[in-house]
Amino acid sequence: GITAVICTYPLDMVRVRLAFQVKGEHKYMGIIHAFKMIYTKEGGFSGFYRGLMPTVVGMAPYAGFSFFTFGTLKSIGLAQAPNLLGRPSLDNPDVLVLKTHVNLLCGGIAGAIAQTISYPLDVTRRRMQLGAVLPDAEKCLTMVKTLKYVYQQHGVRRGLYRGLSLNYIRCIPSQAVAFTTYELMKQFLHLN
């Protein structure tokens, strides 16, 4: 995961910069122009990696809490209500697995919890990515400085968790489908 993030991070940086532009204030004329401007005006290749540290640091708690929550919900569900929530696995009838709709629900809950825990690091990443185009850029140079600055200026709800509800709209269905696919692939590959 970390290798993939490092390889694709410049694309994410350009995407954030292009998305941040408002009508009438186009600093970047397109993808290629954004790449050129960031490279020439923000220190070469290092300019593409502003905000990488909170992304990498946030990956572990996000994945950890996501899998922990899903596994816990799955275990509790199958232990407490096996007939209601479970069904025999396709590859091993002696093993119970969650029904598809329950898988989706547990995956969505797992995604929401993991996103809630790691979201301040996501805010930090975005703030650092936009740092060069924001007026307070000098206050958002490192992960710790950015976290402190956002907290001091805007607090928890309007700072560190700003935009979380919109992020749930993307994250919850994504994680629901990801965990359901994961569980189905385990059955198809005979891993139960």
TrEMBL record:
<dbReference type="Pfam" id="PF00153">
    <property type="entry name" value="Mito_carr"/>
</dbReference>
<dbReference type="InterPro" id="IPR002167">
    <property type="entry name" value="GDC-like"/>
</dbReference>
<dbReference type="GO" id="GO:0055085">
    <property type="term" value="P:transmembrane transport"/>
</dbReference>
<keyword id="KW-0496">Mitochondrion</keyword>
<keyword id="KW-0999">Mitochondrion inner membrane</keyword>
<comment type="similarity">
    <text>Belongs to the mitochondrial carrier (TC 2.A.29) family.</text>
</comment>
<feature type="repeat" description="Solcar">
    <location>
        <begin position="98"/>
        <end position="188"/>
    </location>
</feature>
<dbReference type="InterPro" id="IPR002067">
    <property type="entry name" value="MCP"/>
</dbReference>
<dbReference type="InterPro" id="IPR023395">
    <property type="entry name" value="MCP_dom_sf"/>
</dbReference>
<keyword id="KW-0813">Transport</keyword>
<feature type="repeat" description="Solcar">
    <location>
        <begin position="1"/>
        <end position="76"/>
    </location>
</feature>
<dbReference type="InterPro" id="IPR018108">
    <property type="entry name" value="MCP_transmembrane"/>
</dbReference>
<protein>
    <submittedName>
        <fullName>GDC protein</fullName>
    </submittedName>
</protein>
<keyword id="KW-0472">Membrane</keyword>
<keyword id="KW-0812">Transmembrane</keyword>
<dbReference type="GO" id="GO:0005743">
    <property type="term" value="C:mitochondrial inner membrane"/>
</dbReference>
<keyword id="KW-0677">Repeat</keyword>
